[in-house]
Amino acid sequence: MKNIYKHIFLALVVGLIVGAIDALFGRVLIWITDFRTIHYLWLLPFLPLAGLLITWLYHRFNKESLGGMTLIFETRLDKRKDIPLALIPLVMVGTWITHLFGGSAGREGVAVQIGATISHWLGKKCHLPDNSKILLVTGMAAGFAGLFQTPLAATFFAMEVVIAGYLDVYALLPAILASYVACFTSNFLGLPKFAIDLQSTLSLHSVHVIGSILILGIAFGLTGRLFASVLAKAKTWMKHAFPNPYRRIGLVSIPLAIVLILLFGGRYSGLGTNLITNSFTHQTIYAWDWILKLGLTILTLSIGFQGGEVTPLFSIGASLGVVLGSLLGLDPLLCAALGYAAVFGSATNTLLAPIFIGLEVFGGVNMIPFTLVCIIAYLVNGNHSIYTAQSKVIY
User: Membrane-spanning residues where (predicted)?
Assistant: First the structure.
């Protein structure tokens, strides 16, 4: 019982600290995104130099931190004992630089790494039994929740993502407490939450709608699977083709920068929030938006730029949903919402987290379609994940 109280207290502390750091990280990233959008012609040509700077920072101050999410997974699986505290400033600064100069990347990896590193450090200081697991999951949940302000999705993401097919339910209480505290803290400190009030609903009483749900689930599942498998192969190939990390990021980012400039004026740079906004505000979405964002994000991350994958996955799913909704004769906005959640779930090989994303971002009126599409996408994915260190339960 005494340890439960300690876990609850530490969960509150972790939520406050991580929520505050998420607010700082997120607000700076928003400013950077707005600044780059205006001045992209002046910033994108320097993407190769930005890549060299990021690589130098990691190799100069803490090369081990390059492991990123892999360090978190290995710690949870008892394959390592420590996560370097240097990871926090390095991943934050590296991600800011990546986005300032136009790399196509996300942000959730940063938040999850920050939360896990802080909670793991606190757990070691307090010498709690099994702290490396309970507090690590708690910190991951707080990091995700503070950035996206979806505490339920964050809690279940942290509990199910490390070992696919298994839930770290013993961490449920501290994880959900830390998630809500981090969510409220980051919101109080001015970090906005993305949410859409969907007006339309899907009735599952027609063959057309049921068939469309099946098609959407398969398409979103295949898209997440494609992203995860190609990203893993691209990272391996890049390391083999360019063993020197400076040459890898310096040389490959030259054509990357040129392509990002030429393709619709930096449309595919950064998080992809522009595509998400367009998807839900009846603005222009091209049929090729999702595949170009997918390819350029994979290229950006495979050569060593920092960030994450989840927000680009949201944008890929949403823009693909608009296209498929128009083809299937369904509301494109609703299909964009389904894609937003399901492609994320497929690529991360998680099931409950994307369903709760649908609930917390888009409301509960379409929970049955969200659940069905996410289940289908999860099954179609076939155990592929953007997190190569993810363990799988084999029955």
Answer: 7-32, 38-59, 83-102, 134-157, 169-189, 209-228, 249-270, 290-308, 320-343, 355-380
